[in-house]
Amino acid sequence: MARVVVVGGGYGGASLARQLDADLDVVLVEPKDAFVHSSAALRAVVDATWQDRVFFPYDRLLTRGHVVQDWARRVSPRRVTISPFESIDADYLVLATGTSYPFPAKFLEDETEVAIARLGRLREALARTERVLLVGGGPVGLELAGELTAAFPHLHVTIVDRADDILTVGDYLPELREAVRSQLAARGVEFLTGAPLAYPPPVDVGIHHPFTVETTTRVPIEAQMWFRCFGARPMTDYLDEDLAAARRPDGRLRVTDTLNVVGQDRVFAIGDITDLPESKRASVAATTRRWWRRTSGTWSTADARRRGTPRHPSGSCCRWARTAVPRRWSGTAAGAWSWGRRRRPGSRVPTCSARRSRRCSGESDASRARAHRSLDAARIDDDP
Ligand SMILES: Cc1cc2nc3c(=O)[nH]c(=O)nc-3n(C[C@H](O)[C@H](O)[C@H](O)COP(=O)(O)OP(=O)(O)OC[C@H]3O[C@@H](n4cnc5c(N)ncnc54)[C@H](O)[C@@H]3O)c2cc1C
């Protein structure tokens, strides 16, 4: 039986590993002890009951295959090296290592217990904090502002962005910017746009520690805590020289329309690390089953005749993601990144991933493709 090694157990990798489990010898390499549902992470910052909706242990993900809890330190076309003493040979390789993002949108910690403890310390510190600085007025900064002001109405939140407005990277409607801005302003959020910070605060993110910084236009900002709400970085530094040839300067991998890493017939990449012109969303990363069956040849002739010409799954929709993401995981917010799309005037401030998730079905491929392009740009280039 062919062995497929999936590197990275996020939305894309975990979904694919589970889908292939019945038919192939699946090995999932992932350093964390639990799947992390990033879509719910910012709500968990302010609400401890949401922790259960963020971390989902891998122990019941696969029935036949298995999860190796470690980092892939070096990956070549047919082998994944875990340590100097341990490597895994592969017939097929799928790279699904996603992007890193500063806490609390994503977690550095590999153990759930440690990540939860950090969230707990953050909540305690927030309760005695009066002023918070958010650096970056993109989707993450705005969502965090919504969560913080909803949970801690006394909190004064300042958002700094080097651009002249919020949500400037991407294809957002001016009406959306205005609606989000005015709703957050009504909660007392202060916007300082048009100039970056002159220097970063002298303390780590999410720590209570009074400081003063200023923008390059000399506007002083006093706060006791800050968060860096920009800086998604593709995680692809483990590639050997054969695979690294397909890496772009921004860290993403060039892939073909069948998601092969360019120049490789048995190595594939999915999700946030690909250079596809799509928005990088959980729902897109998880849309791999159809693609895999087709690409790997497990797609039957009858299937092919019925379904037509293969194409990569970036045009598939959130409804598909809901079937692809394991049921137990799909209840909260898979596919809920939808608020970042071009929205109609009057859209509400995004504060709740679960609420948002109810809005993400029924959209056409064309509008999704537009949204994909805009968010793709927004999430990589949203430096303030
Ligand atoms: C705050 C926030 C909210 C979001 N909300 C939504 C939303 O509501 N809806 C939506 O559709 N999208 C949302 N997104 C985007 C979504 O999270 C990403 O598009 C999605 O995670 C991409 O999936 P992926 O499988 O490519 O990568 P990830 O889900 O990031 O998974 C990558 C995995 O690879 C592992 N990994 C990394 N390096 C290695 C290595 N060397 N060896 C082994 N494993 C490795 C990581 O530990 C991780 O588990 C949100 C993102 C953020 C940051």
Q: Which ligands occur here?
A: flavin-adenine dinucleotide
Give the beta-strand count: 18
Bin the strand percentage: 15-25%
Largest sheet: 5 strands, parallel
Poorly predicted regions are 298-384
- Numbering strands along the chain, what is their spatial order in the largest sheet? 5-2-1-9-18
Please give the alpha-carbon distance between the first and last residues: 49 Å
Describe this structure in words.
- The protein has 384 residues and is of the alpha/beta class.
- It has a domain at 3-105 and 232-336: FAD/NAD(P)-binding domain, CATH 3.50.50.60.
- It is built from 13 helices and 18 strands.
- Strands 5-2-1-9-18 form a 5-stranded parallel beta sheet, with helices on one face. Strands 13-12-11-16 form a 4-stranded parallel beta sheet, covered by helices on one side.
- The longest helix has 16 residues, at 112-127.
Key words describing this protein structure:
alpha/beta, 18 strands, binds flavin-adenine dinucleotide, 13 helices, 384 residues, disordered C terminus, 18% strand, FAD/NAD(P)-binding domain
